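Question (not urgent): is this output format expected?
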Amino acid sequence: MADFTRQRGKRQEDGGLGSVLDLLLANARLVLGVSGAAVLAIATLAVKRLIDRATSPRDEGDPKAEQKTLEESWQDLALIKATPKPPKKQRREDLSEPLLSPAHLLAPEPRVCSAPPETPRVEASPPHCLTLQEKLLSHYSSWLAVPEAQASLSPQLARSICAQLQNFLRSKCPELPFGSLFLSSPLLDGLGALAADHIHLMLPVVLDTTLWSLIPGEDTVVRNPQYWLIKRTDLEYFPRGRSPWDRFMVGRYLSSNMLNETLHKMLVASINWPAIGSLLGSVIHPLVASQELKLEVKHDQVELSITLFPVVEMEDKVLLAAPPEGLVENLWLESFYRAEVSKVKELDASDSGARQHCLRILNGICKSHPTLHKLSGSPLTHVVLHLSATSSDWAEESLADRFQQVLEELVGYLEKGVLPSYFNHKINLFCELLEEEIDEMGFMLYRAISEPELLLKEK
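Got this back:
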């Protein structure tokens, strides 16, 4: 009876507890929703089982019952721990945050270091095909134009050396009527130069025209119209010694070779170049072994080669003391350089032409080319002058056409082996070229007519 009463009271307590739980679960469903109510039901069931186990009597002599009770309690605790926590109530400030998709709520993706996104590939536009004129101008500005620093410093150094040399000659040789030294160079005259490293010093030799006369080279044993002899006249009436230049005579002719030897000795042994160089911030060395009258100048910014040329001007001729190699020592070379520069500038001024620009490009290309370097200078200028007589369009826009036309003209002259001087058609400017050199130049230029880019490659 007591057992029955106890069990009945227990059922009443269970019924009261169950009704309370049902009420809580019903309200929880309204408050927490279905998922939250399910979680709460599982947790409540586990707690109820713990309470039942704690209040129910157990057999005191049964150790298995005690072990079972403990095991069930651990299982119930594990059930409570494994139960997912209900989501927290959303705060007002969280409403502004973006919502996650159900997939993200259920199974968050592991974090993986992904490669940086590839830069979208942009298809390159096809390269712009340069015209020949654009290539010529680009090549000249990139590889042939002389830097402004060198272009200004080299003439400045040359003029300073020129002044020092002029003072020395006037003090050392006051009896010799030398004229005033002056500079001559394609760089200074606008006809182009690959580098500001070569400048000529022209030393005028003033002759009395009543005591000296000119004899054409074609009337002598050399038979070369490009050379001249300077002959002493009227020795019967004006004996030897009357002219200060008589000391440089061989036979009855003014010897260019003897004059050069005398000046060479002065340059090498009589002038204090170390002192002059220190004043100019440079080092000056005369070339001892060279037959030319040459000075090598080394400055921090430029290296310069200066060549001295005695020059005689008579009867509208300009003659240089530059005899050919051989036994002939009395010949003087006729120079057309001054006339070339003057004529090219005159033609450009008359039609606003680009002859000087064309020559600058041609001279730069030929001088830097191992096969064509002997064409630079006068030969190119005379070709341009010949072409100017037949082609009148020398505007800047026609630069490429004239460039190719000059190449064609050069090939024609090389095939013949003759390039007549513009100022004297008896003179062949190719007379000192070897046959092998002519063949190599002609072949190279023949290829360049159809493929001008061959001449624009870096050397």
